[in-house]
Amino acid sequence: MPAISMTVNGESVCGEAEGRTLLVEFIREKLGLTGTHVGCDTSQCGACVVLVDGKAVKSCTALAVAHDGAEVTTVEGLARDGKMHPMQEAFKDNHGLQCGFCTPGMVIASIDIVNRLGKDLSEETIRHELEGNICRCTGYHNIVAAVKAGAANM
Amino acid sequence: MENFNYHRPASVDDAVKAATARPDAKYMSGGMTLIPTMKQGLASPSDIIDLGALKNSGISVGATVVIKAGTTHAEVAHSAEVRKAIPALAALAGGIGDPHVRNKGTIGGSVTNNDPAADYPSACLGLGATIHTNARKIRAEDFFTGMFSTALEDGEVITAVEFPIPRKAGYAKFPNPASRYAMVGVFVADTADGPRVAVTGAGAGVFRASALEAALGKGFDSASLTGTPVPAKDLNNDLHASAEYRAHLITVMAKRAVDAAK
């Protein structure tokens, strides 16, 4: 099995992975970082989204071996000095979650939206940009409010 | 997913050598179709030849727009040069999948896969693109040969796609509400050789709508398409839409694409 190394949430990590080991399996099972979720088996739900070299990708649709040397940020890497990231804070304040299963992917995807498009986001933009993240609880309304508030505070 | 041997060649030559020596190998670019297909057990290649280390991405605009095969949809969508030269192409790339898919998926992968509901094949055929491979150049007309099939030989790999710059072009798609793939997508272009209309999602593969091209020959205006029917024969007929409905949508989407053309 090939050994791979990457930087995850600022820390160097290494481990073995089969060719077929998905990035999300490496993150969850080898590294024990279970904040990144797997919500579907069809690459559609976005619960597994992480930042790879600064860009949002579906870690369930990426091979771990292909990410040797990559820099990965998961939801566990967002808080600083025990304080939540502004986007996490906004999801909490705006009740942008119910069961919470999709939330890690939502938060990472939302940070990616701000990184790409800036802090001043219209509701229409947010709804369109969240096309790759599915929530089955909230009806999205409070998620959109959370992203708007979180973006403004980033 | 079944296991496989993983290769990460550093050059196109090495990639072709690796693929040619292994008949059941598959190239992987962004993996946005291949990995889900493998997860579902619908493909189980013996070897994956990952083209990621080739770093074959980038866009150059001169008399034509040349997009290297490893360029992601996000890069095409956000390219100021593509937006200026062929705005419809940038818009099409920005409407593929979702932001996470666009960060990984590449033009080379999409064109190679030739999904009958993919967006890029319609731009290739609609603009009269030329597909560059490690071995030759293939006209779009000759490249797309049917559902998930292309003129690529075993081991042959796309290196770039070259698009002529039209006077104007537009793309409109009616996405399936669940999958977001095109139920019907129409790419129209006003070119030096006359109007071109390419349709994706509606048939077994991308095709040109000759009736609509003839109608646009009278004037590149959506009014020219009013009352121009597209034959429903050979169109997809499934739980999402009947062939007749798709035929109707082709004219509607073509009109929207012409109206959006710039």
Short overview:
The complex is a heterodimer of chains A (154) and B (262). Chain A is α+β, with helices and mostly antiparallel strands and 154 residues long. Chain A is built from five helices and five strands; from the N terminus they run E-E-H-E-E-E-H-H-H-H.
Describe the structure.
- The complex is a heterodimer of chains A (154) and B (262).
- Chain A is 33% helix and 15% strand.
- With 154 residues, chain A is α+β, with helices and mostly antiparallel strands.
- Chain A has two domains: 3-76, Roll (Ubiquitin-like (UB roll)), CATH 3.10.20; 86-153, DNA polymerase, domain 1 (Orthogonal Bundle), CATH 1.10.150.
- A five-stranded mixed β-sheet of chain A has the order 2-1-5-3-4, sandwiched between helices.
- The longest helix of chain A has 15 residues, at 103-117.
- Chain B is α+β, with helices and mostly antiparallel strands and 262 residues long.
- A five-stranded antiparallel β-sheet of chain B has the order 4-5-10-6-7. Chain B has a four-stranded antiparallel β-sheet with strand order 11-12-13-14, with helices on both faces. Chain B has a three-stranded parallel β-sheet with strand order 1-3-2, covered by helices on one side.
- At the A-B interface, strand 4 and helix 3 of A face helix 2 and helix 6 of B.
